[in-house]
Design brief:
two-stranded antiparallel ribbon; two-stranded antiparallel sheet; 18% strand
């Protein structure tokens, strides 16, 4: 499980692995991808993933709940 002390790389790995285990394809993108692959050059404080728009958000939320995330609102999941 991830927690407040987890690094961005830890969070990205946990999210990606969890989604994959639930059959959900995801792509890390944006500043978080840059920060994971070039931490000495770029810093980010969030993790952005691109998912298939046809993937039910309820399925994504259920998968991520196991690692400490909760759904807030219509289209976002937060820790």
């Amino acid at each position: 499980m991830i927690n407040a002390g987890s690094t961005l790389a830890d969070v990205c790995f946990a999210v990606s692995t969890t989604l994959s285990r639930h059959g959900i394809t995801s792509i890390l993108t944006g500043g978080s991808a840059a920060a994971v692959y070039a931490p000495q050059i770029y810093m980010s404080n969030d993790a952005d993933f691109v998912l298939d728009p046809d993937e039910p958000l309820q399925k994504v939320a259920a998968a991520l709940a196991a690692i400490g995330f909760a759904r807030h609102g219509r289209s976002r999941i937060f820790m």
